[in-house]
Amino acid sequence: MKAINKLYITILLTCSILIGCTDQFEEFKGDNDSLTSDDVSARFFFPNVQTKMWMPPSWSYLFTRIMIGSTYGGYASFGYKNSWEQPDVVFNTTRSWGASADAWNHWSGYFLDIDGFLRLVEPGGLLENHLMEAVGNIMKANYYFMYSEQFGEIPYSEVGEGILEPKFDEQITIYEGVINDLNDAMAVIGDETVTGLGASDLAEYDILFNGDLQKWKAFANGIKLRIALRANGAPGEGFADTAIAEALANPLPTEDVKIVKDLEVSWSVAARDGDFTRFAGSWKMLSSKLINTLQDNDDPRLPAFADPIDGGELVFGGYDETANKEKIDYLLENTLDRSNVPYSTSMNGGDLVVTIEEGPDYYVGQPMRFVDGMKTFLHTEMFSRPNRLTEGVLDLGDEIDQYIMPMSEIYLMQAEAAVLGFGGDANALYQQAIQASFDQWVVEDNGYLDSPIATLSGTTEEQLQQIGLQAWLALYFVDYQGWAVARDFHLDYITDNTPDLPTIYSNSIPLGRSYPNRVKYAQPAYDLNGTNVTEAISRQGEDNPATELWFTMGSKF
Fold this sequence. Notes:
- There is one protein chain.
- The model is unreliable at 1-33 and 267-271 (pLDDT under 50).
- The longest helix is centred in the first third of the chain and has 25 residues, at 97-121.
- This protein starts with a helix and ends in a 17-residue tail after the last helix.
- Helices cover 44% and strands 6% of the residues.
- It contains 18 helices and nine strands.
- The chain is globular and about 80 Å long.
- By secondary structure, it is mostly helical.
- Helix 8 (213-231) packs across helix 14 (407-419).
């Protein structure tokens, strides 16, 4: 009974701090006088395992999902006039060390969360449950996959084995290993539908699938397909074709995989953009690459993704100075002019006054990676912010859900496989994907589905570019998946080098003009495991965001 009481206290503290004590837990707590071992369950720990992966707390959320995920992915830009940051934040690793450090600490530290859960439910564990273990192993496989896609080589095979300085494994080893782990987990689940009865059932403590094991199995198969397609054709791999064929032959998710967010949840549990956008200095603007791509193709998702600009009267100081005039003229040409926004200009002393005319909604993206000297000209009123429902702000009383694997991606992966020769009607799947994305964002087709962009055509490489672009759009703010897609498909325009204009763009940073291919290893990695970090760099390439990762060297270009 003492052991049960100790475990009850642990569960009480953990739930109070980490999962907010649901009504169900309140009932459990209130009846603790008659508590027996049958009432104690590992399920109380599981929401923390899920939220920490996809919605980590506070600053981890800011630096990983908001800053690295959205800026490296090409969706968003920081460093506007009143921002706390400079325009090349995150990209300039000589001063944005905090982002990579927090990202590394978050992902390396997450192992303790998933490992702690698995040790409870493994054979011989205090709360042994082989089906909960299978679900945990699916989470663990996805964890290593997401972790590796950001940094490249990471500790994998020796982690948790009592080795203080585990070696860094190559991506080919990690990808094949996690596919095998997913296969094992799906085999354990088999035809089972729940993890048990009563307190042994994950049920509502599983915020993805409400304890439905067949949905977990389909999700695991979707992750397997995602990994195999990324690895396909990369140097030395010999497992992707088999994995793709197996995944296509088995059930995939039939509905969006997502976490329904709760605005009442504390940001220390599961943060979201709105927790930071309360402060005007921490806003993000949508990138010119995203807005231009949507506008150029008359994409009906534009107003769902973005808010229109505020407009009004904007003062650009020092226009009578040659260096400033060059910057301001370039800015106006590549923002307001590029988006066909009507405006008038006048001079007030040495300042240029731009007045944006009132009219229909205008959408303008902020170019990325400007030099510091451009910041003073980047007025927030001339750029589109994300649609505020994507940020989860309290005054709206609503927000979109946290998507993990939308149906649009499921269809696009199948379309990609069809183009690569695995069977299926590639074009039909491609159009289903676009429609699924429209459904997700609750927009009506405006003729887009009848336009050339919505019909696959041309060479295999050209069709893959079409699929990759739609995947990048469909995965808008889906953790880091859009960034991975851009790298994997080497998407035209999205991954282009910055213009060779050193007075306008921050091209002298370690990244240079290149698209970011990885997150730099952080100082804690060097401090705690320096020898193995150095060995990883000797194989992988310079510890620089420009270094291309193994999975991006595949067959899509």
